[in-house]
Each structure stands twice: as C-alpha cells, then as structure tokens.
Amino acid sequence: MITDIRFVHLQTRSHYSLMRGAAGLEALCVAARERGMRALALTDIDGIYGAVRFREIATAAGLRPIVGAEVTSPDPRRRAAGETATLLVKTRQGYANLCRILTRRHLEAAFALAPAVAEHAGGLVVLCPSPEILQEIRALCGARDLYLALGSSGAPLPAWGGFGRLRAARALGFEPVAVNDVHFVDARDFDLHRLLRAIDLNTTRDRVPPEELASPQAWLKTPREMERAYPHCPEALATAARLAE
Description:
By secondary structure, this protein is of the alpha/beta class. Helices cover 41% and strands 15% of the residues. The protein has ten helices and six strands. Strands 1-2-3-4-5-6 form a six-stranded mixed sheet. Helix 6 (131-141) links the parallel strand 4 (124-128) and strand 5. Helix 1 (25-34) runs parallel beside helix 2 and helix 5 runs parallel beside helix 6. The two termini are 19 Å apart.
C-alpha cells in the first residue's frame, strides 16, 4: 500500500557492497515497494557493479530506480572524519562523471574527495555528512546540488553530532536530507551484517570494532518509521522525496 508520507531512501547498500551490505537487490526492491515507496536509490560503496541488474529488478517491482554510489576516502582516518559522499545520477552526463570519479578513486593513491567531485560535478546530486566537505566542493566549482546527509553513519564521530552538523549546514546554506544508511532489509538482519564484517576482518563477531559496523537502525524503514526518526527535522524527509522526483 502506498503511504501518504512521501519518502525515498537515497542511501542504500546491497550485497554489492562486499562484506557490508546484507541484502540482495530483489529483497531491497520488493521491500521498498511493499513499504510504500515509489523509488529507491542504490548507492553501493565505491562502485556501481549492481546498477544494470538493479534497474531491471526495480522496474519490474514497480519502482523508479535511482543510480548512484558512495565514494569514500582511501584513508580510513579521513573517511572516519566525514570524507565520504553519496553521489546520485541526474543525467547521462552525471553517470559519465560518476564513472570518472570512481575510476580515480580506485587508481589514485592520493585520491581526495572534494577536488574529484568538484571537477566532475555536472549531472550529480551530492549528499555528504560533512558541511566542511560540502563547503570545499562549492568553493572549488560553485556546484548547487549539495546536501547534508543527515543520519549517515559516515558522520564525524563523536565530537560532531547530528544537531551540530545540522546547525553548521544551515548556517552555510546546505539543505539537510534524511538518509538511513541502509545496509539490510529488516532490523533482525543486523546479525548477518555483523557476521560479514567479522569474516572480512578475520575476527569473531563480538570483536568487530564498533566503527566497522553500520547502526543496528540501518534497515529499510518505512516512510512512517522515518518520520518518527526525524521529529526535529521533518524538512529532511521532504527533501529526500523532492530529490527523488
């Protein structure tokens, strides 16, 4: 059933985010449609390996597919400080630019997110948890499609919480967008996500560092559940729906 609350998940990982995402494309698309959404973005980490199949499955499920990717810094310390951005494709030029950015991410040892995005920003929407990174991109190229990813587990920890980032972004003129950093379909699938991280890190489940895990809340919530999660910033939900359109 379609809900009267308009919301679209714009930050979603599938099992193409190897050893992190705990859901297949079919499960994500079917769940999104059953939970009242008209569209869904697939934004796997540093790659678009599932994009073609995602378009096919989403369309068959009655969803409008949105193609994108999360691009991260190769440096774990910079990544933990917020140097990561989810890039969504608006146009054919945007798809080409996303491919260029991802190629640079994999080939350049000294890859820096802001300059790379600024050089290839055309046709892309940029969601980032760091107002500083957004400001740097805008200063380099004057891009306008820049938004604060509010709720991302990639946010700076722990000194800069959600409210601090929200105030900073508003002061700089960046709109907030609600994201849930989806890694699995249902809350119970967090255990599978943790197992994948343990295998990847060659450790036991109880020894996986917290910073290596998505939030237990990082599941494909319904629009109403997302509304309850953002009583302090309802406009962030509306912006997500508007960007999807």
